[in-house]
Write a structure and sequence with these properties.
seven-stranded mixed sheet; Aspartate Aminotransferase, domain 2; globular; 2 domains; alpha/beta; Aspartate Aminotransferase, domain 1; four-stranded mixed sheet; 390 residues; binds pyridoxal-5'-phosphate
Length: 390
Amino acid sequence: MIPHVLPTYNRADLAFERGEGCWAISTDGTRYLDLGAGIAVNALGHANPELVAALTEQAGRIWHVSNLYHIPEQERLADLLVEHTFADTAFLTNSGTEAAELAIKMVRKFWAEEGDADRYEILTFEGAFHGRSTGAIAAAGSEKMVKGFGPLMPGFRQLPWGDMEAIKAAITERTAAVMIEPIQGEGGIRPLADADLRLIRELCDATGALLVLDEVQCGMGRTGKLFAHEYAGITPDIMMVAKGIGGGFPLGAVLATEKAAAGMVAGTHGSTYGGNPLACAVGAKVMEIIAAPEFLAEVNRKAGLFRQKLEALVAAHPDVFEGVRGQGLMIGLKCLVAPGDLVKAGYAEHILTVPAADATLRLLPPLNISDADIAEAVARLDRAAARLEA
Ligand SMILES: Cc1ncc(COP(=O)(O)O)c(C=O)c1O
């Protein structure tokens, strides 16, 4: 008999009833060190007092109003996003997938407004993940995600990851946009070199193609900058944000320049819940905290400490790990064993991690993880690795 919850996930036999900072407490009372953070979502840890206060204060005033009216909390969050980024405007969504959908629509609308509606091809990349909607699976194009869901939405062409020659050969004055994660998350914490991102920006400028960055996983302070593309010193035309921006409350955003967003006039897009007061009250608090330079400096300091300890861990387990990669607290441990086996060994050591493609174990802890929890995490990973060696 089919479970009452549609069985689209292979779930671990674990359930959590509470959280405190980097710790998730299971229904049997066991404390797990949470290095997955809901896959880069709980950016400020579980039950963060400032976020709980922002949410409950808002909950006592008004939960939901339609986008038929002005929503002050939404305007405040949009102001913060515009103030701290390249963007001139923001649309608030409930998820990263919805942000991907709008980004795709915005690209198409941009070219339609330019009188060139046939210019719709978006270059995307192997190993990419942009969500599970029909548009987002067509964009990423992975066999695993699209199988059985055809016919796929047309207009995407996948290129090999990190192959600049392939991009140079593919991009033309008929290319509508390039859509890329500065660091692939689901694809295995695979960073694009800063020089390569700069080259992609140059190729877009030369051909007129829009640059769409998917910073759903790598954005919101995860890499030690507010957004990962800042390392390359470039800006996109459109950017997708989600996960960390809500700190655990469902929230996403599409940020865009005035030029890229020019076609998105009244009636071209909408959402019942997108930009809801509860979500935006939390999102604005998250932005206030994460965008502070002192906070980002701490993320970088902690990332350095973590990295140093992980390099030692890798060296101590040469049959389990191959290396460490990523940026800031978006960490990938390239494995010589199946990452899923390490995740399971981690459960036995009461630590939560997340597998990714390309034989990679992901560590995406809350950005405010303490030094003591970093040390504890490495000790538990060390014991988990030893379990696999045994
Ligand atoms: C880079 C990237 N884009 C888009 C998405 C989709 O976001 P959501 O699951 O919130 O719809 C994800 C989710 O993992 C992601 O990592």
